[in-house]
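subagent[fold] <- orchestrator: predict structure for attached chain, return tokens only, no commentary.
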Amino acid sequence: MRYLLIIFFLLGTRVFAQISEKSSPLSFDNVLQEKVNSIELPKVNVERLLLEDSLDQLRNRPMRFGKAHEVSISIANSSTKEIINDETKVWRLELLCPEAFSINLIYSDFRIPKGGKLFLYNKDRSYLLGAFTSSNNTDENPEFATGLIPGEKLVLEYNSPISSPDPKIEISSVIHGYKNFFLFGDSGPCNNNVNCPEGLDWVDQTNSVAMIVLAGGTRWCSGAMINNTCEDGTPYFLTANHCLTGAGVSNWMFYFNYQSPSCANIDGPTNQIVSGASLVATSATSDFALLELDSRPPLAYNVFYSGWSNINTSTDTAVAIHHPSGDIKKISFSYQSTESTDYLSSNIDTNETHWRIPAWDDGTTEGGSSGSPLFNTDKQIVGQLHGGYASCTNITSDWYGKFSYSWVKGSNSSARLSDWLDPSQGPNDTLGGNYFTFTPTLEASIGKISSPDENSCYRIQVPQISIRNKGTDTIASLELSWEIQGQSPDTLAWTGILLPGLEAIIQLDTINFLPGNYTLIGEILTVNGQADYNQCNNLKSKSFSIIDGNEVTFKMFADNWPEELNLEIADTNGLVLFNEASFQANVLDSFLFCLSPGCYDFTVYDSWGDGLTGGGFFNIEFNDSIYFTASGAFGNCTGSQMPNGCSVTYRLCLDTNTVLQIPIANFQVSDTLFNTGDTVFIQDFSGNFPDTWEWLLSSDSSSSNFTSQNVEFVLQTEGWYDISLKVSNVFGSDSIYVDRAFRVEKSSSLNSFEIASKIKIFPNPAREILNIKNYNNEELLIQLLNVEGQLLKNVISNATMISIDISSLPNGIYILKFSTNTNSDTRKIIIE
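subagent[fold] -> orchestrator:
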């Protein structure tokens, strides 16, 4: 046994999280100065926000209630400060959001010294949150969030002993609630309150469901606490992948027991909150996200951890428990068998990713229900809500990501459920639920094996195993056995101070591995010299590979819709090796993959079907060089919504030192119908960086060759035109041929030169506004089209100066057609 070599540090967790200490602000019982420093935030354009919300609804995005004002407000520097009786400090700050229904706050730094207390309340002091104390601090992640305060004015009050150091309370976002989050009863009338007679047999499962305030405090979803096979009360929470809107989960708020106390439509409590979580596993394929809350919900919340079934069998009936439209908790029933289909499909296939609810027979789902659990007849979770068309006025289908598919289909532990919900690694197909009504005194567990990575190009590794204190006693000593499977085990002893709720990362020996597949096994033997309460969670293993290969970097700058994007890396046999879906909005994310020599298909999916808008792009890089890149309407994306989404695939072939990249030919034509004298624009969309292009445009009576990357050609001959393109680089070539790509008809006797000389377009490239100077003395018809020929804008005017708003259009090449009663012409413009 060795007693040395442990590098140890603590990772704090929010032991009480959003949970606060019961007390009242000093200002409630003392006469303080009337004038308090006040900060007024700008008004919000509610009409514009509601228009954006209508688009969100189409794209199955979580419902939004608030607009975030990005701020940098320090309580220490912005508050009005007073001293009471020469012994207590009182700091107060007012935040005003004109005409807001509610205000809630996100903090970039939240650290309260011992003895300090933070309160938040509304103008008439009828709603109070707090006190938040040093128990809410965390070393691991200083971010924090506090719940919604009704009304347009929020008061922050900080109380502390006069000798106490100043707090670090930095507000990064003030959320203006432009919808009434507290206005219960917004869901459809066909919904059932959970405490109505039909829901009374589902009380336990009801107690597992919570409403989530997410996306920087501006949106909401639903989800449920879920049990694991060690039944140790680890606060796992299941919701939907598409609720991960790119803002992270560290400041999510989980509202428990927001429900009517009876069958009557009575508002429920909104103060049973847990704040903060970490993302454990997620996948866009079956639309699941598994989180671990930063703390267990307190016993007073009476939270149930629901059971589950990973058996891929449909259920005769199904039950959903959820928060439709952010309303109090509801329960819905389907008395029809679920069907195994793809998302939004009705084609039945047992290997597919979703359970389809043909129709709800009692109740429904709505926006805000996303992520909520689907229960089988045995009251076990079998899926979580992805989306669908159901409502009280539309008795039709919903789709739930399959729990059974999410269980093992992911390519690694961060993309599947089994590694986390079955730590005992037994043959467990089903598990019942449980209430965890006490915390054991002596309880430790292996949290995770954070190193090595599951695939690594580095032979020298330093394995790391994290240990968590889940009991109420301080851990002062611990024995840990570890081994690389097939080799002799080793045991080390740790001594120190591991407080309740904290975590230690233990660093093992430095090992020089040969390329190959390995399994690291760690097991806690004793805690404080004896066996701990639950030994099921004392053993954990991790399989990993050391690869004699190359590191390839994938970089994604996602648009405003990161939850629609998914990356899969598969070998040439179609086996998916990696799956990545944790992208952030308008942030450059970088992911490193180790690949052995061979060929791999990188496929980027967009579930909505329009590709990347607003400057989004992705790159695949090797040896500090970009080998593939795409932006805008990549692959078969059209630039607008496609029912089944769209994708692009790039094949990357690696030997030991180089990347082989054979180009892939592709192009787009500006229109499908032209008149003689018009100009056709053909844009090269070939992948894998060709360096030569060979074009052939041919009709029955003419042909033209080009060697430029893009083609701009004045059409003189009528008829159908075929297009052939061959692209090449040093690695090879690829060709594409499109029969009857466009048609040219005989032009009327219009003199396009005459109208062109009387039109001036500026600026070009353009951004927000496109201006057209019209010197023709007659009415002008202006049509703005994309390169696929879709009409985007249509303007008729006889004004001398015409301005067209293009601020909503993504960057790219567009076609501007204009005509009078006697003339017509076409121009190419660029929007950037």
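orchestrator: received. Logging for downstream: The chain has six helices and 65 strands. The longest strand covers residues 732-745.
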